[in-house]
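Example with several molecule types.
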Amino acid sequence: MTDYVHGYSDQEAARLKDQADTLARLLYGDLRYPPGAEVLEAGCGTGCQTIHLAASNPHTRFTCVDISPASLALARAALQSRGLTNAELLQGDLHRLPDEARRFDHIFVCFVLEHLPDPAAALAALRCVLKPGGSLTVIEGDHGSFYCHPETPRARQTVDCLVRLQAQAGGDACIGRRLYPLLASAGFRQPRVEPRMVYVDGQEPELIEGFSRNTFIAMVRGVREKALARGLMTAEDWDAGIADLERAATPEGTFCYTFFRATALQGE
Amino acid sequence: MTDYVHGYSDQEAARLKDQADTLARLLYGDLRYPPGAEVLEAGCGTGCQTIHLAASNPHTRFTCVDISPASLALARAALQSRGLTNAELLQGDLHRLPDEARRFDHIFVCFVLEHLPDPAAALAALRCVLKPGGSLTVIEGDHGSFYCHPETPRARQTVDCLVRLQAQAGGDACIGRRLYPLLASAGFRQPRVEPRMVYVDGQEPELIEGFSRNTFIAMVRGVREKALARGLMTAEDWDAGIADLERAATPEGTFCYTFFRATALQGE
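Resulting C-alpha cells for the full complex:
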C-alpha cells in the first residue's frame, strides 16, 4: 500500500466527507452516465465521491475498487445508510484489477493519481479494462495552484510541506497541470482538460467555510505532525503559517485553488 | 511618472499589441456599453484596449487618460489608422483627473492598478468622477497565479524577477487576488470578481503562440536587462530559466495564468 499522505484517521474521514460535499457541486455533480452503463471507480477510498455518483446516476452500475479494506468498510456504510444499491465495492490494486477480462463503459478516477508513484502506469492499466469507445474522467487538484490574500511566506510554507510530504510518499500534489500530457502519452484519444478554479472572496461566505476552511486548511492541518516530525518546519512557524492561512479565509481575504477535470476516450 | 516596469520601447509596444489582440477575446471582447454612454478609460497606455473597446462600442464616447505623452501618441495613431473617432485622448494623472466636475457613466481600468504605489487612492479618485449608478470595470493579472509543466525553480525565478522589479517600482504584480478587498474598501458597492484563467495545453496551439510565448514569456523576457543589472539572477540562470519556460510552451507542456475581472457600482 502506498504511504497515503493524509492518513486514515476518523478526523481525516470527516474531512474527506466535508470536502466531497462542497466539491461535488464544483467537480462531479454534473456527471451523468447513460442508464445501464458499467462504470469503474478506480480508487474510491471512503466512498465520498461514490455516494454522489451513485445517487445522481441511479440506473448506472458502479464497480468501486480501493486498496484499503478500512476505507471500503466506510464506503460500504455510507452507501448502506443512503440506501444506494448500485455500487459494488471490491478490494484491489488499480494497477492489477481483479477481473482483467472485464471491460467497462466508463472509468472515473478522482484524487487518486496524485498519490501514485507512477500515474502513467496506472492509466495504462485502466485503459486495459476500458471498452472500445469508452471514456475516462480524471479529477485531480494541484496544490501549486494555491494562492491567497493576504499571503505570507509562512502560510505558503505550510502548503509546501504537503507538497513535499506527498513527494516523499511517491506522489505528486501538483499533478493537475500534468493531466493532459499524462493522458496523451498513455494512449488515450482526445484528452480534454478543463481547469475548475475555486475563487473565494467576501461574497462567498459558504465557500469560505466549505472550501477554504473545511477543505483546504483542514487538509493542510492534517499533516502537521508529519511535517514537524520530519523537520520541515518548526512548530512555531507551522502554527503561525496556519493562522496566516486562516486570515485569508475571512471576508477580507481571498483564496484561490484550481482543480483539473480531464476526459479522454479509449485509444484503441 | 511611475517607473513603469515594462519600459516604453518599440518592442514593448509590439508586445502590448500582441497581448491585447489575444487577450481582447478572453478579457474584454464581450464588454458592451450602452449607446451614448460616457466612458472613462483610466490609464489607456498605447491604446491596445482602447481600439477594441472603441470598435466594439461604436456609439459610446470614450475619454482615455494616460500620464505618458509618448504612449498617447501611439494610441492616437492606432485609433486613426482604424478610423475610430469615438475616443478622445487626454494627458493626465488618473489620481487628479483634468476635469474633476465631469462625471462618467462607466470607468474602465485595465493593467493599471498593478503599477501604482497606492491603488486604493487611485480607486478613490476614480470614484469621484463616476456618476451615481455608474459602474467600474477593472482587469488585472496576477503573476503569482502562474505555473506550468514542466516547471523548474529557474523558470519560476525569472517570473519572480518581474514580481520583485514591479514591487521595487512601487507596484504589485500579484494585485489580481486583491481586487475584491480593494474595491470594497474604496467604497464601491457590490464588487464582483471573476477570475479568468488561461489554461494552455497541446490542444490549444494558437494559445501556446498567442498567450504563452508572445504574451507571457515575451513579458518576462522584457525585464532581462533590469533583472541582471539589479543582480536578481545571473545571466546564465536567467537564460536557462527562459529556456525552461519555453519548454512548457510546447504541445507537451501546459501553462496556467489567471486574470481577474472585477465590476463594482458607485457607492454613493
